[in-house]
Design goal:
Blueprint (H helix, E strand, L loop, with lengths): L2 H13 L11 H29 L2 H8 L4 H8 L3 H14 L3 E3 L4 E3 L2 H7 L11 H21 L11 H25 L3 H6 L3 E5 L5 H9 L4 E6 L2 H11 L8 E5 L10 E7 L8 H10 L1 E12 L11 H19 L13 H10 L4 E7 L3 E7 L1
């Protein structure tokens, strides 16, 4: 073997060994990982197509009117056939729609329709496309924050995040909040039915506030968020409805909530985003009625990292890296709980804020629900 060939062979062998060891790469493991990466790449590249299908009404048209060729679907939705043809091919390759070669028609099965087309479905997920887009758009800002250690505020993120978050969490809130979570709190549902008051902290577009108000027509409901555009959207959503007279949306931070005697103070998937969650809880505790209740809804998380290495944890750790942790680090204290804080950590936060009773009252695959009382 020539000297150059010997050097090349030695270099290649070195690349196949980890530092400090003589073990070569396991080809089967490498092949399996490459298969996983191909699947992940396909999912990532098709995420924008989910958003297109949602925004252009392609999924809804397929669900409403049945199987279609690309020409038929384009005609139904007022879009261009050549683009629709390529989109449908990608959807079929992903297993999101089914293709019949004999008729050249594509079908959205009822199971996929529940996920992509029916916004009232308990498994609707198409709204997450805007969240994904916001995470991509916000990547460069967060990348710079990695270097500086600074934060990236919620209000500094791409606007896609705000409506996307509202639509993503609406699915869970709509099917669990009034039916399961509020009844699980000690005496709260009865207080609201009698005309009690509630404060929804970090209400965003007001989805959770509105659901609680609709279920309790005698209750006085207040939604608070520091993000003015979200409050504007919340106000617009109740304008001209019977909720306008008894639901109030105001722009202020958690530490600025005006004094009151709220029977319920709620944090929906936002406490971990706050720079000073202890301070926020301490302040709102002072605005509650003596026998008031604080409900804290957080992303589902176990206490140990190794127990969160699963599909749900994968989603939330990604969101936490690009959205939640930067948001907290942009504020005072910057505790940066992250979206996978877990029950034990949330209990310590509540106790540091002066709450003496804390318990988990409900859970879903996406959320944990806690009750904290003075």
């Amino acid at each position: 073997m020539m000297a150059a060939q010997r050097q090349t062979a030695a270099a290649e062998a070195k690349l196949c060994r980890p530092k400090g060891g003589a073990m070569q790469i396991d080809q089967d493991k490498l092949n399996a990982f490459m298969g996983k990466m191909l699947g992940d790449l396909g999912a990532a590249l098709n995420a924008p197509l989910i958003r297109l299908g949602d925004s252009l009404g392609l999924y809804k048209a397929m669900a409403a009117e049945g199987p279609a060729t690309s020409s038929e679907l384009a005609q139904r939705t007022g879009t261009t056939e050549r683009y629709v043809r390529e989109w449908l091919a990608a959807q079929a390759a992903s297993g999101y729609v089914e293709y019949d070669a004999a008729t050249e028609r594509f079908t959205l099965p009822p199971e996929q329709a529940a996920v992509f087309a029916d916004e009232e479905s308990p498994v609707f997920l198409a709204g997450v496309g805007d969240v994904i887009a916001a995470m991509v758009y916000g990547g460069p800002k967060v990348g710079e924050a990695f270097r500086t250690g600074h934060g990236v505020g919620w209000d500094a993120q791409n606007p896609c995040l705000f409506c996307g978050t509202a639509r993503f969490f609406r699915t869970t809130y709509k099917h669990h909040l009034v039916q399961e979570w509020l009844p699980a709190l000690d005496g709260v549902a009865a207080k609201l039915a009698r005309g009690g008051s509630l404060a929804d902290i970090g209400c965003g577009h007001g989805v959770s506030t509105i659901l609680m108000a609709q279920a309790h027509p005698n209750a006085r409901c207040f939604g608070f968020d520091y993000h003015e555009p979200s409050i504007t959207a919340a106000r617009q959503s109740i304008a001209g409805t019977d909720l306008a007279g008894r639901v109030t949306f105001e722009t202020c931070s958690a530490k600025e909530i005006p004094a009151g005697t709220y029977d319920l103070v709620a944090f929906f998937d936002c406490l971990h985003d706050m720079g000073d969650p202890v301070g926020a809880l301490r302040h709102v505790r002072s605005t509650m009625a003596p026998d008031g209740t604080c409900m804290i809804v957080e992303p589902f998380a176990n206490d140990r990292l190794e127990d969160n290495l699963n599909p749900v944890g994968r989603i939330y750790y990604a969101a936490s890296t690009l959205i939640c942790t930067p948001a907290s680090l942009s504020q005072e204290v910057g505790l940066a709980l992250g979206a996978q804080a877990g029950e034990a950590r949330m209990r310590r936060v509540a106790e540091e804020a002066g709450f003496t009773r804390f318990r988990r009252v409900a859970e879903t695959p996406f959320n944990l629900v806690y009750e904290a009382r003075p």
